[in-house]
């Protein structure tokens, strides 16, 4: 539930930001910012609805797990 | 230029390096190297000393440009932008979420088990976003103001620990040979030290000479503190205990008790750690926002802060399922860190030497 409030605060903060950006006609900034915020809100909505999201570290583990085990064997 | 003084940069880098490692590291070192854990610190620093000249050589070529601009001049604007964008997402931003999770784990297990973990995330990220928005000069001054508090707290903690030290816990030295020490030095090298590549992003705000001094000074001070910290925790608690508690430096301070009156110092180390984590998060946040803003050719990196903070809060909850997974990660992370902390700067340096004309200043 707390996450929903945080998402609301982030959204409100971004909307204030967008007014400044729009006034200064920084269109690119606005688009990138909005896209990232959309990513954040989607992730938040997914985790609020209890969908298991993959950890970004799984790819690190898959990439470097074998090397790590090999070195651990060398040094034990 | 000159937005950051040499001293501010040194303190910022130093507290960044202390950051999350200060609390977690002794247990990782002791698990690998037993009573020789403290020897892993000089071993890691020795390897890092080989890498610092690489960073310095790159920094010299960057001059007053931003890191992104330099990569653009080396590899072409588009390639430079893609590389900087990927780098800031995969290195500083990923570390940011992990650091945030460290904070959450600590608060949830040791301080406030019933508070929903999103609350400390939110409060901390709000402070970080607020400070980074204010600009690098303000960050520098904040760091400068906070540093005496942090250092005096550390001093009190170390001095209070002296009566409970037991040299016998450190003996015998080299009982298991050099291999465990090397294995123990990996996490230390990876966790704070290979992240020094991020300091290259600060060159637009500070001249090369004070930057170089700041890099060396931060390594020396944080290295000294890590050495003292592992020595003191292992000597006070014995390696078996240090290896088995998640936050040994917090635990060891709880054991301070002189005459049943001079005790309960864990609050001090909590404050100290919050300061260090705050500064670490702000450095990582600054670098990720600047890098991403360069990749997307934005005018103001500040616009990225709120969405990045939101994503960090959410991702922090799912980077690892529990503390055991974190300990497993400590074995794998060093290789990932080598990719960004050693292989990547090496590639930059080599291409800088090959394309001397494109790289600008000789």
Briefly note the structural class of the backbone of chain A: mainly alpha
Rg of chain A, Å, rounded? 20 Å
Which radius of gyration of chain B do the C-alpha atoms yield?
20 Å
Distance between the termini of chain A: 47 Å
Order of helices and strands of chain A: HHH
Element order of chain B: H for helix, E for strand: HHHHHHHHHHHEEHHH
Which fold name fills CATH's third level, the topology of chain B? Amino acid/polyamine transporter I
Structure description:
The complex is a heterodimer of chains A (76) and B (362). Chain A contains 3 helices and no strands. Chain A is mainly α. Chain A has one domain. The model of chain A has no long low-confidence stretch (mean pLDDT 86). The mean pLDDT of chain B is 87. Chain B has 14 helices and 2 strands; from the N terminus they run H-H-H-H-H-H-H-H-H-H-H-E-E-H-H-H. With 362 residues, chain B is mostly helical. Chain B is globular, with a radius of gyration of 20 Å. In chain B, helix 5 (77-111) runs antiparallel to helix 12 (266-295). Chain B is 74% helix and 1% strand. The A-B interface holds A 2-3, 6-7, 9-10, 13-14, 17, 21, 26, 28-30, 32-33, 36-37, 39-41, 43-44, 47, 53-57, 60-61, 63-65, 67-68, 71-72, 75-76 and B 94, 97, 116, 118-119, 121-122, 179-180, 182-183, 296-300, 303-304, 306-311, 313-315, 317-321, 329, 331-336.
């Amino acid at each position: 539930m707390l996450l929903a409030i945080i998402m609301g605060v982030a959204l409100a903060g971004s909307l204030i930001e967008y007014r400044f950006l729009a006034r200064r006609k920084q269109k690119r900034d606005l688009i990138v910012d909005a896209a990232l915020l959309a990513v954040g809100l989607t992730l938040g909505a997914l985790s609020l609805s209890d969908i298991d999201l993959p950890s970004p570290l799984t790819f690190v583990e898959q990439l470097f797990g074998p090397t790590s085990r090999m070195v651990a064997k060398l040094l034990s | 230029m000159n937005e950051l003084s040499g001293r501010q940069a040194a303190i910022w880098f130093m507290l960044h390096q202390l950051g999350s490692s200060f609390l977690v590291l002794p247990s990782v070192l002791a698990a690998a190297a037993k009573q020789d854990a403290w020897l892993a610190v000089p071993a890691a620093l020795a390897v890092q000393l080989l890498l610092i000249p690489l960073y310095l050589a790159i920094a010299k070529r960057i001059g007053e440009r931003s890191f992104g601009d330099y990569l653009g001049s080396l590899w072409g604007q588009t390639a430079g932008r893609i590389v900087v964008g990927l780098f800031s997402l995969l290195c500083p931003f990923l570390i940011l979420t992990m650091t945030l999770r460290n904070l959450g784990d600590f608060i949830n297990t040791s301080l406030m088990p019933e508070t929903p973990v999103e609350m400390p995330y939110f409060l901390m990220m709000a402070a970080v976003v607020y400070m980074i928005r204010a600009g690098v000069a303000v960050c520098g001054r904040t760091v400068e103001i906070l540093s005496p508090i942090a250092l005096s707290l550390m001093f009190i903690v170390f001095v209070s620990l002296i009566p409970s030290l037991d040299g016998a816990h450190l003996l015998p030295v080299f009982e298991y040979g050099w291999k465990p020490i090397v294995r123990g030095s990996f996490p230390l090298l990876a966790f704070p030290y290979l992240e020094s590549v991020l300091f290259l992003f600060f060159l637009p705000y500070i001249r090369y000479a004070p930057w170089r001094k700041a890099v060396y000074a931060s390594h020396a001070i944080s290295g000294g503190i890590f050495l003292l910290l592992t020595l003191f925790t292992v000597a006070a608690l014995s390696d078996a205990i240090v290896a088995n508690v998640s936050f040994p430096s917090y635990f060891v301070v709880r054991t301070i008790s002189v005459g049943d009156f001079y005790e309960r110092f864990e609050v001090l180390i909590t404050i100290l750690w919050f300061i260090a984590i705050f500064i670490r998060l702000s450095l990582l946040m600054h670098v990720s926002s600047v890098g991403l803003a360069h990749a997307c050719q934005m005018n103001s990196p500040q616009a990225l802060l709120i969405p990045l903070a939101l994503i960090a809060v959410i991702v922090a909850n799912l980077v690892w399922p529990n503390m055991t997974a974190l300990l497993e990660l400590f074995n794998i992370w060093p290789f990932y860190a080598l990719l960004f902390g050693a292989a990547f700067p090496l590639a930059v340096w080599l291409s800088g030497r090959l394309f001397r004309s494109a790289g600008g200043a000789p």
